[in-house]
Specification:
By secondary structure, the chain is α/β, with parallel strands linked by helices. The protein has seven helices and 21 strands. It folds into two domains: 173 residues, FAD/NAD(P)-binding domain; 119 residues, 3-Layer(bba) Sandwich (FAD/NAD(P)-binding domain). The site of NADP nicotinamide-adenine-dinucleotide phosphate has 20 residues, from helix 5.
């Protein structure tokens, strides 16, 4: 039986691994895709201390994983299919095998919210994308549209302006939620067109995206805009499916305070999956450290 199982290999999970191993606890980390989570799909991270020039998200993610693995972290690239969190012995099932653990640190993060448009799913991967860093380079010299008004949307617009011939950012309100510095930089970028108080109402295209329908929310008028790519950046939804019915949630997030303790003993939630006022790489890493320390304390290690 392990002391701790970590679910999710983003900054929270990797940092938890580093702290658990340094505390002398046994643990394994389960990751369904790649280490780094959302950080790994971010082009440049400019607000993580220690990197005055910024650092690439994939590079920071790999460095975190390297540090954890150098301490001996057992990273298993399997999707956790089931969790039993209530009893004294907790169980995780992945790849058809069940392992037992005394504590669990949940770091599943969040995934991109959909616009819920009729043809959105059909055109995903055919012009519609949720990751500018992953797919942006495919749109060299093309016309792209970004939807959203937060940091991700504005960063995506800035990133895409390096490849695309034109970028149109569409935001449903007249004020951007993104950091002022990013918005100012976007406003000064010549090939970015900013459409405020506007929504994307429909997508058109047979084999791939060709056109989108825009609606001005003030006048109600609609118009068509030709587009080769549509990058949707309208926020995130926490990945809590594994915990549903077992843990208390709040607005869809796992309810946990600054100590990362959830509604069940020896179950902790760290990073974007938990209730918290700020969701950044540094906060996720901090949560991972706290969760590991709380687990060590509660296990009497
Ligand atoms: P976010 O801050 O939640 O912003 C989502 C944006 O999408 C908002 O502008 C929202 O509009 C809009 N939106 C939501 N649902 C919509 C819908 N159905 N149709 C049209 N627009 C919709 O999400 P995010 O930008 O992904 O950022 C998530 C978190 O990560 C934030 O805490 C952010 O600060 C952080 N982050 C930080 C950095 C950085 O510091 N460098 C980079 C990326 C992300 P309203 O404004 O009208 O609500």
């Amino acid at each position: 039986m392990l002391d701790t199982v970590i679910v999710g290999g983003g900054p929270a999970g990797l940092t938890a691994g580093i702290y658990l191993l340094r505390a002398g606890l046994t643990c394994a980390l389960f990751e369904r895709q790649f280490v780094g989570g959302q950080a790994a799909t971010t082009n440049v991270i400019e607000n993580y201390p220690g990197f005055p020039e910024g650092i690439g998200g994939p590079e920071l993610s790999l460095k975190m994983a390297e540090q954890a693995q150098s301490l001996g972290l057992d990273i298993r690239y399997d999707e956790a299919e089931r969790l039993e969190l209530a009893g004294k012995v907790k169980r995780l099932t992945a790849a058809g095998r069940t392992i037992e653990t005394r504590s669990v640190i949940l770091c599943m993060g969040a995934s991109p919210r959909r616009l819920q448009l009729k043809d959105e799913e059909r055109l995903t991967g055919r012009g519609v994308s949720y990751c500018a860093t992953c797919d942006g380079a495919l749109y060299r010299g093309r016309r792209v549209v970004v939807v959203g008004g937060g940091d991700t949307a504005v960063e995506d617009a800035l990133y895409l302006s390096r490849f695309a011939s034109s970028v149109t950012i569409v935001h449903r309100r007249d004020a951007f939620r993104a950091q002022r510095a990013l918005v100012t930089r976007m406003e000064r970028t010549p090939n970015i067109d900013i459409l405020r108080s506007c929504t994307v109402d429909a997508l058109f295209g047979e084999e791939k995206l060709e056109e989108i329908a825009l609606r001005d929310v003030t006048s109600g008028k609609t118009r068509a805009l030709p587009a080769d790519g549509l990058f949707i950046a309208v926020g995130m939804e926490p990945r809590t499916a594994l915990a549903e019915g077992q843990l208390e949630l709040e607005n869809g997030y796992i309810r946990a305070g600054e100590d990362t303790r959830t509604s069940l003993p020896l179950v902790y939630a760290a990073g974007d999956v938990r209730t918290k006022p700020l969701r950044q790489v540094i906060c996720a890493a901090a949560d991972g450290a706290v969760a590991a320390s709380m687990a060590a304390l509660d296990l009497g290690a």
